[in-house]
Amino acid sequence: MVTHIDDLPNELLNQIFLRLNPLDVDIARKVSQRWEVVADETVGVELYLGRRSGFLSSENLDWHPLHAMQTEGISKCCISITSTLSLSDDDEEDPQMIQTKYPVFWAPFLVKSLTLYGGISAPYFSRLMSPLRNLTELDLHISALSTLVKGQVKACGDILDCSSDHLHTCISPRKLRSLKVSMKGFEFWHLQMLRPSKMCRCIENLYDILKGYYPLLQRFELGFPFFWDKESDMTKALSQFLHKHHKSLEHLSLEFHFYWRLEDKSFEELSDEDMNAYADIYELPELSEIMNLKLFNIDITDKRFIVPSIFYWEKLMLQQESLEFLKYKSGYHCTLPKCLIERNCHTLKTICMTVRANSVLPVDCKVLGKCLHLERLELDGGLRLIHQVLADSRGPHLINADSLPQTLKTVRLCSIYIDSSAAEHISLELERLKTLHLEDIGQCDGLGMSFSTLCTICEKKQLDSFKFVTAINEISLDNAKKDWNQQTPFQSLLLILATFYELPRMIKRDVDGCYVAEVSGAPIFPLS
Amino acid sequence: MALVRVISSDGAAFLVSQRLAKRSGKLKTEIETFRKSSDNSEAQPEIRIVTIRAEILRLVLQWLQQHQNDPVLPANQNEQDGRGDAEMGQSQWDRDFLAPMDLGIVMELILAANHLEVKGLLDITCKLVESKITGRTVDEIRTAFKLKSDFKGNEEEQTRLENRWCVEN
Fold this sequence. Notes:
Chain A is of the alpha/beta class. Chain A contains 17 helices and 20 strands. Among the domains of chain A are: about 1-45, Up-down Bundle (Monooxygenase), CATH 1.20.1280; about 45-215, no CATH class; about 345-485. In chain A, the strands form two sheets. Chain A has an 18-stranded mixed beta sheet. In chain A, strands 12-14 form a two-stranded parallel sheet. Chain B has a single domain (about 5-135), classed as 2-Layer Sandwich (Potassium Channel Kv1.1, Chain A). Chains A and B meet through helix 1 and helix 2 of A and helix 4, helix 6, helix 7, helix 8 and helix 9 of B. Chain B: It comes from Orchesella dallaii.
């Protein structure tokens, strides 16, 4: 039997690849599936280039100088540039200097994934991006969008000639599978500090990127501040983008945080005219094509307002047929979408929603019982809002808890009144449950978890962690106080905590399986 | 001169000097363990290498013989240094040594050199394989190593397209 190159273990094949020039590795990875795997391990260097970005300051990363890209075979890279690095009119038009100041990738074919943070100018963006024909993942931080200024730089020779006015034409669409616009580390005060003109530029640049067509795009994620006076435009731009990509797109995630107006008016001063301006959102064309999304995540949470565009996104959600991950959070609490869940019951693994729950229209768990693979269920009822208007304390707002699927591993229920038997079923009868969080589930009458259930949970030691906030039934607590003498010290301690404080999050200790409380400030507070 | 018997997987015994054998990291540790476990310090160690057949073991020992006076290369160097050493150490003799071998033998030599921890030999053999990949197209590489593509139809087509990009540029 002749020994073959595939008889070498991965480490040795890898050693051979390490000696190769990155361009040759890129060819070698096309030889066979195994070579591809080994080669990907070889040139998968992730490099952080440029200045340490303030948005990533909490992470301890190894930043390399920008010019490292001229010598390293980089396949994955994150670039952040100092803001001074943009040419002005005073700069000498020396091509040599431009070369050193604006380096490009040595082996552009290798670059698969690129993350951009602030400081990059539009012409440099074009120069850097255009050769990246194999780019599959592009992640633009909001800070990068704010510095990409079109036509800001006078063209210097051929090198920085920005041949096109559009950003999206610089991105090679051929292989792009994932496009993200993120606002990692971007806080509210950043938003307050930004001049409206700069924020406008961000938005325009976002629209520009959205104008592109990327035939293989599977994943689109957007994290962005929400602007009331731009909502209509933004929804239109997004809907057109989705329209174009409905065939390939599988993962859609839109998260809007921080509510703001570009013009310097506070929300409360919204006039009727302003409101009329948003009305045309209702006239958006409906998506006639069915999108085959696996992941659907819309998060537009604002406690004060219902955002008009949410109805558009809700329609999109209700069309889906093969969802695995469903997350839908907004100020508007819809009823649990039964038809949608029934249609997707064979694929759904995660449901995370804000739902409307009251005693007239309770959340019916029957439909959830059809989901054979459901592992995570998070429901947030609109109770706190309702509380202010009418005291709907009759409950329960969740019925048929006994039909919840046994596949559940994580359950989190907030602001939904649950009666004691349902709470008992959820916490004790689900065999695979590992994490449980119940908050604001009612405490009067028959509502809330009874104290004995809490004690059983602690004895059973099935859960890895649990947290109950205003969730223990008051009557059962009173009764437990009467039987004070018969309790173990642990139960007494639980009782004290449940009566006077909210129960801290409890985590199972690996050593002996006992629960310890996680108390902020103190390392761990032993409670067993 | 202290000797050691090195026995191949197919039972052929080679009698070599311990000084030579110790240039292999693996044999060195084996000899030392033998010393520690044996009462008689004069006894001749016997080492069985179950993964390497006689023909290959002979080649390894032949290479060691030729290079017995080279400075010992420290193990665990990073690849960059390794590359430099290999170029430096590749003599005419090495080239003649490797020239008549087919790739199957070279692969066995790589495995043997790796197992016996002979860094110099591992370097030159890997370099030989590297030279068979450098500057070739995917199809040429497959022919050279008698590999078949196991990508599925669509992927294969895409791969070809990708190659064209690379070749054009």
